[in-house]
Amino acid sequence: MTAPPVSNTAVIEGLLRDLAPQVLGIMVRRNRDFDACEDAVQDALVEAALAWPASGVPDNPKGWLVTVASRRLIERWRNEAARRRREEAALAIDEREIDPGPTADDSLALLFLCCHPSLTSPSQVALTLRAVGGLTTAEIARAFLVPEATVAQRISRAKQRIRESGAEFRMPPAEERGERLGAVLNVLYLIFNEGYTASSGPALQRVELSSEAIRLTRQLRSLLPDDGEVAGLLALMLLTDARRTARVAADGSLIPLAEQDRSRWDRRAIDEGVGLVSASLASAPIGPYQLQAAIAAVHDEAPSAEATDWRQILGLYELLAKVAPGSMVTLNRIVAVAMVRGPETGLAELAQVEDDPALAGHHRVEAVRAHLLEQAGRPDAAAAAYRRAATLTSSIPERRYLEARARASTARSG
Amino acid sequence: MKYLLLIYHNPEARQLWESFSEEQKAEGLALYAALNNDLAASGELIVAEALESPASASRVSVTEGRTVAGDGPYVETKEHLAGFYLVDVASRERAIEIAGRIPEAAIGGVEVRPILTYSALEM
After folding, report:
1. What pairs with residue B87 in β-bridges?
2. B116: chain A residues, CB-CB within 8 Å
3. What is the rounded CA–CA span in Å between residue B8 and residue A182?
4. What ipTM describes this predicted complex?
């Protein structure tokens, strides 16, 4: 024996999650039936998670998983109907003969399939986390605080939908590639946000969705190293996640960016994110993820809130509003306007957009108004706006934060 | 985002339902079945249940550590909760769209309530 067998559970879990999409790629390329292959690979992953900690990781873990998954697939087919019996012969292979194949393309094709446009976004998210991320249905359910049965149903209906739509396990044609990649990036960003915005309470039970999103985006970047938006999304995640520990106080309350202890930000993540976004902005066509990453980079590189380069941030929001307009971009741009041209200018711009149907009644409008009124030295009006924002939000930490700001403003006015 | 869609009944709605022919009742139930199928297919449904009548309700109170269950019904309440959907959807607009497909929405008996979360954006 040359090395002791690996039996550390965390190491094994990491290995299994890395291998999951590769094994599934091999299985689908060989057997085509995505639905059944996906179930068979899940079975194999569970078996490995149970067996390897005791027996040690086999010499060829990928081969082991493909062999077990193939057996489980045969069993499924057998159980399904005798008509599939002929497939068995094709599956009787020795694990040493397994051709590693074009794994990179397999993993990409798998991501494109899981984020197929015929699926709703919750289904895309669930299927991606299971088929590409190697998470179990139970883990996904815990992470999204929904019953396991709901996730199981989302996954099985998603696979049925893929079958009905005739989608194939292959790279989308070049003319569709951009749009389909957009859907993949959106799913990864949704997973990241679900993890990042959870700050306390039941959230403590969640698997680390933001780390998982970063891991999957890193994987994607290794497959598409020249794509600016893939690099931009990875940079955005790293630059946002770098602030994670500084944004929540010991009592679980939120700390706004301006008041965070910047020495607690993760320098390594910031350096990596800044490097990524600088390189991609210099070489690739500009896109919304790169712009958002650039904005995060300006914040992360400022030594203090006061030293933030708001002119640059405003310029980036102006560009973002052209490339990818949206209600949150509108509001954030107004915050930047206020920082550069004064709170009254910001309030005037806010008055012009607040009737927009996407913004009407949104708690963020009142929160931004409150913030600008505070800066304008009108604490009474600010307190009232903070209270309105607090009643409109459905987030418990946000409500606590807004109520605290309302009290602070009231104290200042008295 | 999760939303609870609450379905309320009142005596008029009850009378209306009872005045329906068998075919009309079947039609109403088919609307529910179709809605349930669609929500299951889209992966948006978490749970949906219809409640027994308020006559079978118990009101629970704890005094000095003793749990006491008293009988319903509360005849004085004009409206009562008759059922609910818990859905996980992309937006409030989508929750409202689903609520609009619940047959009781025709008589204004459906309420959409966002579920409180522990998630928060950067402020």
Report:
1. B3, B45
2. 394-396
3. 42
4. 0.71
Q: Can you name the residues that pair with B113 across neighbouring β-strands?
A: B4
Residues of A in contact with B119 (CB under 8 A): 194, 197-199, 203, 395, 397
Provide the 3-class DSSP secondary structure of residue A81: coil
Residue type at B73? P
A376: phi then psi, degrees, rounded to nearest 5: -80, 0
Which H/E stretch holds residue B45? strand B45-50
Nearest residue to A374 via CA among A412, A336, A331, A334 = A412
Could you read off the pLDDT of A305-345 as tens digits, one per residue?
A: 999 999 999 999 999 999 999 999 999 999 999 999 999 99
pLDDT for A206: 57
Contact criterion met (CB below 8 Å) for A140 and A150: no
Distance in Å, alpha carbon of B15 to nearest chain A alpha carbon: 35
According to DSSP, the residues that pair with B84 across neighbouring strands are B6, B49
Residues A237, A214 contacting (CB under 8 angstroms): yes
CB neighbour class for B66 (10 Å; exposed up to 12, middle 13-18, buried from 19): exposed
Contact across the interface for A395 and B123, Cβ inside 8 Å? no
Reduced 3-state DSSP string for A308-363: CCHHHHHHHHHHHHHHCCCHHHHHHHHHHHHHHHCHHHHHHHHHHHCCCCCCCCCH
Q: Does A126 sit within 8 Å of B43, measured CB to CB?
A: yes
pLDDT in tens, A61-112: 999 999 999 999 998 888 776 555 555 555 554 444 455 555 667 888 999 9
In terms of DSSP H, where are the helices of A117-265?
121-127, 137-144, 148-165, 174-196, 209-223, 228-241
On average, the pLDDT of chain B sits at 87
Inform me whether the pLDDT recorded for A38 exceeds 90: yes
